[in-house]
Amino acid sequence: MSSLPRSVVTYQDHLSKLQPLSSSRICCKTVKSCESLLRSNRHRTSLAFSTLVSRAQPIMGATTLDKSVPENLPPTLDAPVEQPPLFDGSSKLYTSYSCPFAQRVWITRNFKGLQDKIKLVPLNLQNRPAWYGEKVYPTNKVPALEHDGKIIGESLDLIKYLDSNFEGPSLLPDDPGKKQFADELLSYTDTFSGTVFKSFKGDPPKEAGPVFDHLENALHKFDDGPFFLGQFSLVDIAYIPFIERFQIFLSEVFKYDITAGRPKLANWIEELNKIEAYKQTKKVDPDELVEFYKKRHSVNPRL
Ligand SMILES: N[C@@H](CCC(=O)N[C@@H](CS)C(=O)NCC(=O)O)C(=O)O
């Protein structure tokens, strides 16, 4: 903040006062007046303007802000494959195309337009190269990010790290109320997914219903957009990889439609499916997922 030109700081103050009234008209007016302010100002630089636009994200559409570009995905690395050079100055995301935790970081990278800045290093978790656990990330899990001479893990920490340490549209709002709600929902992710996974052994509508209701209610909190914080954010990114899988599995195996009676959740899924950054990461094969979860969670569905 301290490095921002004065006009930017003034605009942010202005914006934060307008946010409670936010509407697309206000958004356009505000961005336009800000643009002309910058034009008439000697601090008119492209950096300043892009900073403003990204700060204005809470009142701009997700598909407009999405900076993802089409990409040819690199092949998955098996055990015999040599280790790519470590700490060679490039940033790498060690990942697995099928891992929901890694998918969070992948979506964030895409949305922020970091495809050229952060290379994907996809691993075959069933036949993992030994060098990964030995030399890169001792927990031997994905995702992990190699950046600035260090390795960082844990998907929720990583999505925040990408958001604060790389360029691209901001994925957390400045509004304190929204920030606090973001923290609450991010802390709830493990309870949510843990409860749903546990229900696979029992009665999902009964046991997992309340956690889906919790999300349905959370989606009612802000009305300036279809996402958890109104506008698209890290919170949506944290949940969607799990919801994508749960929706498939619960419908296939238990004939349980998680969106029935939950219109906000249904609309949220629909809106997310319009976001290219997310669509590019959808690699789940429904049949494989069903087999994998059945084995892993010793599911005995009562059909
Ligand atoms: N808490 C970690 C969980 C990561 C995780 O469990 N990743 C799985 C793949 S989806 C993994 O690497 N499993 C390998 C193993 O446990 O050996 C995060 O949020 O990043």
UniProtKB/TrEMBL annotation:
<dbReference type="InterPro" id="IPR004045">
    <property type="entry name" value="Glutathione_S-Trfase_N"/>
</dbReference>
<dbReference type="InterPro" id="IPR036249">
    <property type="entry name" value="Thioredoxin-like_sf"/>
</dbReference>
<dbReference type="InterPro" id="IPR040079">
    <property type="entry name" value="Glutathione_S-Trfase"/>
</dbReference>
<dbReference type="InterPro" id="IPR044629">
    <property type="entry name" value="GSTL1/2/3"/>
</dbReference>
<dbReference type="GO" id="GO:0004364">
    <property type="term" value="F:glutathione transferase activity"/>
</dbReference>
<dbReference type="Pfam" id="PF13417">
    <property type="entry name" value="GST_N_3"/>
</dbReference>
<feature type="domain" description="GST N-terminal">
    <location>
        <begin position="89"/>
        <end position="170"/>
    </location>
</feature>
<dbReference type="Pfam" id="PF13410">
    <property type="entry name" value="GST_C_2"/>
</dbReference>
<comment type="similarity">
    <text>Belongs to the GST superfamily. Lambda family.</text>
</comment>
<protein>
    <recommendedName>
        <fullName>glutathione transferase</fullName>
        <ecNumber>2.5.1.18</ecNumber>
    </recommendedName>
</protein>
<dbReference type="GO" id="GO:0009636">
    <property type="term" value="P:response to toxic substance"/>
</dbReference>
<keyword id="KW-0216">Detoxification</keyword>
<dbReference type="InterPro" id="IPR036282">
    <property type="entry name" value="Glutathione-S-Trfase_C_sf"/>
</dbReference>
